[in-house]
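Think of the structure tokens as a kind of shorthand, similar to the way a musician reads notation: each symbol stands for something richer, in this case the local conformation of the backbone. In the example below we present two proteins back to back. Begin with the first one, reading the sequence and then the tokens, and try to describe in your own words what changes along the chain.
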Amino acid sequence: MTRTHLKTVAVVTGHDQPRLSKGQQAFNKLIKQIEKKRAQLADWETAIPLYQQKYTSELLPLTKGLMDIQVEFLHSLDRASDHKEIKKSERGMIASLIVDLAGDLLFARDDAELKAVYNKHSHSDYDKKEAANIKGMKSMMEDVLGVDLGDDFDMSSPEELLKRVQAQMAEELEQENAERQAWEVLRPKRKKSAKQLAKEAQLKAEEQQVSLSIREVYRKLASALHPDRETDTQERKRKTALMQRVNEAYEKRDLLQLLKLQLELEHIDQATVNNISEDRLKHYNKILKEQLEELDQEIFHVEGGFMAQFGINPFDSVSPGTIMRDLATEIAGVQHTIRDLKKDVIAFEDIKKVKAWLKKVRREAARMDDYGGCLF
């Protein structure tokens, strides 16, 4: 038998078979979808480490640098607000700007000097205000989630919150299951109808046929590759490696991989694929649908984990082909902001430039209000 050069498993048309059946079309479509999802998953596995490296080596230091210059910027505004040439309305603007930006910065870092500036312009105490906010948030979350977080709970730790909530929910679920099981024991048993029994028997028979279909492919490969039957050392090593791939594919119910191995080892050819019976295709298609659903779930978890790890809005659209470009854009934006703030810090040594800047900010804020937007 000549070695096949097929890139993938698929039923193809020919002189003897000018048109594909619905089962064959579904088989080909599922194969193509699985290959596409696997390629997508492989792209994520390649892209995430590259993203993490650039994020850690470039964006994180820039973000720290940005916060440092923002603190300098706030101190410059604070000094300017005490200048005798600053009007009361301008002083109010400066206070509002400082409170907004200082609040954001203090959420990310604990800075005593920055707290003092915040307290000065907000006419309040940041620590007391934050403690009250945390207490209110804790109470709200307890009401919404229906859990008791306890007096010792640290609201600043999202990970601890998740663990505490999951533990309590698991405990409640376990209690509900125990009560349900106790009720099931006491509740009178209702006999299943003939229709229900027939449906259950049909589903069980179909699942057995599906398992037999994939087991048959596995057995043919295992029989041909069993390394204990091989006397040649090199050939035994080759077959051992191939048998490991077969076992892994069978454990995962990876029908596509098993069929590919059959093609690779010349146990089947294109004619064999073209002549898979409709009953067998029905079973194969069910297995392939399960594979596709598992791949969808795996990609969903990879994407969700990536977005959570790097603080990306969960409603944003991400793909392995665009994340590096998006990161480069974010880095460029932070660099641009740092340059502008450094210029402002130097310029704010001149009170006239502070007043001109405030006038510009006021105009921009008015323009944003006209469009229903916000400046900060």
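Once you have a description of the first chain, move to the second and do the same.
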Amino acid sequence: MMTLFRRPIHAGFAPLALAAMFLTMLLAGCSHRPAHVNTPLAPARLGTIETGVASWYGFPYHGRRAASGEVYDMAQLTAAHRTLPFQTWVEVTNLSNGKQVDVRINDRGPFVKGRILDLSQAAARDIDMLRAGTARVRLKVITPPHTEPPQEPVTVTAKPAPPPPVALEPVPDSAAPVIPSPTVAAPPAVVPRTDRFVVQAGAFADRDRAESLRATLEDRLMQARIVSNEAAAGAPSLWRVVVGREMTREQATALAVRVRQETGAALVVAEPQPAPTPATQ
């Protein structure tokens, strides 16, 4: 027998009281997430895989301080793990549907037997486990996502304004056509008749090419013919392919629309007249 505060107690009572007090404190501590932990851990090895059951947590922990010291935000892609170092990134795969999400470890948990991960609400939504509450998952340690360094501001030097466009004089319909290579611009026909018009489909320095275009138009439009220009001394002869005969300007303009659909080019020009035949002595 011994006395405490002048009351007799048994000798074995004191150890039993201390054990009961310690057990009460331990149970109370298990019902809360641990306080801020500063113990440094070695970095997790890339490619490490763990399989088990994951859960998720939101309220009332949203806005509270996590074990890493930062404020928990359930809208961010984060998670709680029991042993992985803080700032470790893991790829979480929901094994029931194959959906994946990458999360950053910033808290400790879960403290329920049989679970390996506590996801934030946003991460749980990405792998479609909000309704079920838990899911069987596979964790894989991955490299942190690459973040671009801030770029230096670029100074843009204003370029001088371009000169104003130069107005071009309109070209009348009866002017000589300008035809890209391999066709060649042709001078006006000899002794043109200005009150009658035809449609010029092309002009060539090669008679065979002019003949090929004439044959094509002859099959489709009829009345196609080749007109030869008198060449100046030392200059090559030109062979013009024209369609129609002695039409008014309105008639030639309407025909030019059809010719342009067949060849891609058509100009209304004055009716070419044959050169006068020299008088015989």
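Compare your description with these statements about the second chain. The first strand starts at residue 2 and ends at 4.
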